[in-house]
């Protein structure tokens, strides 16, 4: 195996460190701009993987665990591109040729950053919709034509923004314990012992 030069090693280390950092403004914008196409891509790729690996035969658990893993197929089969700043817009398109692991190492630094951004946007989407995707794919796995399911599910998921996915009771803030006890402890059975 050839020895990596210092610039390439620095790039790989930088990319690895970037992958664990909090999402950047570009990554969040990529997620927002590609949400609809990401949904369609994820559902289609899930359908392919379920049939290829017969994931439905052992129940929904295998499908549930495949949802976050589908991002590898997204990175291999789709490309993420951006327009130039200041009004940067991201788009997700199916690749004409599947990206192999060896091809990824030959990419220039900006292409590597786009691959990482694509992976993070996919992970953000699958984190938000893992349960819904798992249920949908388990119910729809036997259908040969997935397009009606893609349209219906992705229309719903695109309509809800990432902010709609969180619990917004109380104006978007996390309720404190006293509020929760007042709301849910109607018979006093879960109140602290000092109130006895």
Automatic annotation (TrEMBL):
It comes from the Eukaryota. Residues 155-196 are annotated as: Disordered. Residues 1-21 form the signal peptide. Keywords: Signal. This is Uncharacterized protein. The lineage of its organism: Eukaryota, Haptista, Haptophyta, Prymnesiophyceae, Prymnesiales.
């Amino acid at each position: 195996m050839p020895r990596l030069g210092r610039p390439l090693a620095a790039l790989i280390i930088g990319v690895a460190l970037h992958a664990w950092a909090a999402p950047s403004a570009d990554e969040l914008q990529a997620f927002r701009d590609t949400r609809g196409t990401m949904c369609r891509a994820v559902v289609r790729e899930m359908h392919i993987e379920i049939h290829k690996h017969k994931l439905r035969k052992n129940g929904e658990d295998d499908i549930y665990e495949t949802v976050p893993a589908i991002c590898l197929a997204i990175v291999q089969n789709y490309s993420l591109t951006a327009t130039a700043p200041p009004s940067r817009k991201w788009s997700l398109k199916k690749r004409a040729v599947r990206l192999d692991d060896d091809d990824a190492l030959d990419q220039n630094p900006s292409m590597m950053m786009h691959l990482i951004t694509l992976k993070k946007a996919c992970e953000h989407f699958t984190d938000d919709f893992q349960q819904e995707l798992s249920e949908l794919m388990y119910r729809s796995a036997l259908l040969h034509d997935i397009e009606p399911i893609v349209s219906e599910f992705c229309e719903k998921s695109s309509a809800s923004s990432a902010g709609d996915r969180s619990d917004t009771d109380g104006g978007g803030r996390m309720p404190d314990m006293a509020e929760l006890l007042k709301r849910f402890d109607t018979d006093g059975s879960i109140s602290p012992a000092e109130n006895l």
